[in-house]
Write a structure and sequence with these properties.
The structure holds two protein chains of two kinds.
Chain A lengths: L7 H9 L5 H19 L2 E3 L2 H9 L10 E5 L26 H8 L3 E6 L33 H8 L5 E6 L5 H7 L2 E4 L20 E6 L2 H12 L12 E5 L2 H4 L3 H18 L2 E5 L4 H17 L16 H10 L4 H24 L2 E5 L12 E4 L2 E4 H15 L3 E8 L5 E8 L4 H14 L20
Helix pairs in contact in A: 2-3, 4-7, 7-14, 9-14, 10-12, 10-13
Chain B lengths: L2 H15 L6 H23 L18
Classes of the chains: A alpha/beta, B mainly alpha.
């Protein structure tokens, strides 16, 4: 098997042991991107000379020589981020971002920039100035957004790990749609410098997208700037909420997630408790209002009269609508944030994790990103955000782990959320879940990504 | 006045007051977004949060 098809940690271990030449691995990765990317549009730019320079200067860190894709959301020293759009309201410039430095200092090699949903404003990935990224499980389906390219790249095995960003679920949605594991860290715990929203955001974080939790632990440790040590999830107290986030989902999703929760309980020798968490839908709206207000970020109304014509009409309209949001609602959204933070703090005295489906329905078609769930047909964005926004609103960490497939062969995922700073516990729990289902979901690969030798 | 009628007045007036131009497609998007979000915004505004002590300068990386 090509080293390309190893896990992230196996690639790192083989390089460290001298069993894999990182220069060969880089060449193989570039060749595979050339071979597979036309079907996926996951990677929007490669820069072999810069990647080789990174490798030549790479320290012997935990990711020495390992190729990584980074979302088009941070600048690199040789490239300004485009945020999946024709133009941002404020110009961006090349530079050293926090995630770049974190990867460089860990010895990783940035091999390409991942596609993303335009302006980060969507859970599907079907809108981008580069054209949509595609889901390796079915290239006519959405890969999830906004970290669409990073997820598609890892699921298509162009690379074993990628860096995404999550402001309202943007790591967890694509992880779920593409059958990966994605960690949304505790707010402010992972590298964010250089992101054009970093000075103002109270929701967005960087995080890893990988095949499984152990790889997320390795890449996440680099982004966190500290080791996310493995611990013990035994006796796990799992909270479940009987609300739209767990009940207004497809039958496939509900069945797979219920089974996964039971597996997690059994494997940890823990317990499942039904808990109450009112106002979940209002908390999602609160997060939407806050992120939209923060996105204004010092812009003036006049700037909105000169939007680039290649920004999608949808986003041009949404950007202008932001200016009409009532200030009273933004203030009230902050009150709801406080309310939910206090409720969660109390709940996390009773349970260790809160579990519900990451997504209410599997990946919808790229051409029509709507989902049919018990309450009716909704845009995927509207349905998805209900279960994701709480973690961003309150700052808690969350992880999405694959737990099955729909009847159409599309991935299904369970989300676990924990108290502030307990990112490690989420990784521990996800690893227990993987073992409990004999790693069948984390080791499943779409047909186009079946392991194969790659000639260089 | 129905919600769409209210939006038909509120949106052009709001944009005009800020000096923002919008073409027909953008106006349709804004109207659609308004119809999606406005009921929730009204619900949010009606939520009684008088007992919620504000969190001053919250550190979102930690419990309140």
């Amino acid at each position: 098997m090509s080293a390309l098809d190893l896990s992230l940690r196996e690639q790192a271990a083989e390089i460290a042991a001298g069993d894999c030449d990182p220069a060969d691995l880089l060449d193989e990765t570039l060749a595979r991107i050339e071979q597979r990317n036309p079907a996926l549009n996951a990677v929007v730019e490669t820069f072999p000379e810069h990647s080789r320079e990174m490798l030549a200067a790479a320290p012997n860190g935990p990711l020495h020589g390992v190729p990584i894709v980074i979302k088009d959301e941070w600048p690199l020293p040789w490239r300004a981020q485009r945020f999946g759009a024709a133009e941002l309201l404020e110009p961006t410039t090349p530079g050293e971002s926090g995630p770049y430095r974190a990867l460089r200092d860990a010895g990783a090699v940035i091999v390409g920039v991942g596609n993303m949903h335009e302006l980060g404003a969507g859970s599907t990935g079907n809108v981008s100035v580069y054209g949509p990224a595609r889901n390796p499980w079915n290239t006519e389906r959405c890969p999830g957004g906004s970290s669409s390219g990073p997820a598609s790249a890892v699921a298509g095995r162009l690379v074993a790990g990628a860096v995404g960003a999550d402001g309202l679920g943007s790591i967890r949605f694509p992880a779920a749609y593409c059958g990966l594991t994605g960690l949304k860290p505790t707010f402010d715990r992972s590298a964010m410098d250089g992101h054009h929203m970093a000075p103002v955001t109270t929701l967005i974080v960087s995080g890893p997208l990988c095949a499984d939790a152990a790889d997320c632990r390795l890449l996440g440790s680099a982004l966190h700037g500290e080791e996310l040590a493995a611990g013990d999830a035994s006796g796990l107290r799992i909270g479940v909420v009987r609300d739209v986030v767990s009940e207004d989902v497809t039958a496939d999703v509900r069945e797979a997630c219920d089974a996964a929760i039971e597996t997690l309980r059994a494997e940890t020798g823990g317990e499942v408790q039904e808990i109450s968490l009112p106002d979940l839908e209002l908390s999602a709206l609160a997060a939407i209002l806050i992120i939209n207000a923060e996105s204004l970020n010092g812009t003036t109304p006049q700037q909105f009269n000169h939007l680039h014509p290649d920004i999608s009409p949808l986003n041009r309209g949404v950007m202008k609508y932001r200016l009409l949001l009532p200030a009273a609602a933004i203030v009230q959204a902050q009150r709801v944030r406080t309310l939910m933070r206090r409720r969660l703090a109390a709940l996390f005295e009773e349970v260790d994790v809160i579990a519900w489906p990451t997504i209410p329905a599997p990946a919808p078609p790229l051409e029509s990103p709507v989902v049919e769930i018990p309450s009716g047909i909704h845009s995927a964005d509207q349905a998805n955000v209900r279960g994701a926004a709480l973690a961003n609103l309150t700052g808690i960490p969350a992880i999405s782990a694959p737990v099955g497939f729909s009847g159409e062969g599309l991935p299904i995922a369970l989300q676990l959320q924990a108290a502030w700073g307990r990112d490690e516990l989420l990784l521990d729990a996800a690893e227990v879940l993987e073992r409990g289902n004999e790693r069948r979901w984390v080791e499943s690969r779409p047909p186009l990504a079946e392991a194969e030798p790659t000639e260089v | 006045m129905s919600a769409p009628d209210q939006a038909a007045n509120f949106i052009p007036a709001g944009l005009a007051s800020l000096g923002i131009e919008a073409d027909e497609v953008e106006l349709a998007v804004i109207s659609g977004a308004h119809q999606v979000f406005w009921p929730g915004i009204q619900q949010l505004l009606a939520l009684d949060t008088r007992d919620v002590e504000p969190e001053r300068n919250p550190d979102l990386s930690k419990a309140p």
